[in-house]
Design brief:
Oligomer: single chain
Structural class: mainly beta
Strand content: 35-45%
Mean pLDDT: 88
Number of helices: 0
CATH superfamily of the largest domain: Cupredoxins -  blue copper proteins
Number of domains: 2
Distance between the termini: 25 Å
CATH topology of the largest domain: Immunoglobulin-like
Length: 211
């Protein structure tokens, strides 16, 4: 089932599993930190995002996909060490994401992406603001103060998605029997669609490569 707000199937026992690994040919280096007057008092070092994590998902929602339960459990994207943690979130439409500030400096979370445009304004350590994501699509998140900070939120209108481990392995569970197109996403790049046939209570092996 999906992570970060995904919902289980009504009859998950009848579903199949897609397991495999996502290959990312190159790992992008994080942006260099750009100190400024506003960063006085910040720690000398900073956390670095794990850009090896990918998202694996069904390209389209299968017929009969159950509606999301209401309300969906909120999830968190922290601001810590001048980094959004986690660097990638995968959620279902209708999920609220909390953006706490755990640094001893101000942050300002915003996005200009079509599925969710927002600007939370500047707020200090210990405070948190939230955004509900009601439209599917990819959302790029930034900090207006620290240009080296960025993250991704992928919003799906179905629960059939998951995150890979740092080694690229994944297990996409509870998939309805039938023929499905599967894709992998990493840092804005996609794999080609891979068509698989899933049978009840069966496992399918699938490896994907992000271009």
């Amino acid at each position: 089932m999906g992570l970060g707000g995904g919902a289980p199937l009504l009859d998950s026992q009848a579903g199949g599993v897609i397991r495999g690994r996502v290959e990312v040919p190159r790992e992008r280096a994080p942006l260099a930190r750009r100190p400024s007057v506003s960063s006085f008092g910040a720690p000398a070092g900073r956390s670095l995002p794990d850009r090896r994590v990918s998202v694996v998902y069904l390209a389209t929602a299968p017929a009969g996909t159950p509606p999301a339960p209401a309300p969906l459990k909120p999830v968190t994207m922290d601001q810590r060490g001048e980094t959004f943690i986690p660097h990638v979130l995968a959620i279902r439409t209708g999920t609220t994401v909390n953006f706490p500030n755990s640094d001893h400096i101000y942050h300002n979370v915003f996005s200009l992406s079509q599925p969710a445009r927002f600007d939370l304004g500047r707020y200090p350590t210990g405070q948190s603001k939230a955004v509900r994501f009601d439209r599917p699509g990819g959302v790029r998140v930034f900090c207006e103060i620290h240009s080296h900070m960025s993250a991704f939120i992928l919003v799906f209108d179905h629960p059939y998605f998951t995150l890979t481990g740092p080694d690229g392995t994944f297990s996409l569970e509870g998939i309805p029997p039938g023929t499905h197109d599967v894709r992998a996403w990493n840092e804005g790049d996609l794999s080609d669609p891979a068509r698989v046939v899933v049978r009840p209570r069966d496992a399918v092996a699938l490896d994907l490569q992000v271009r």
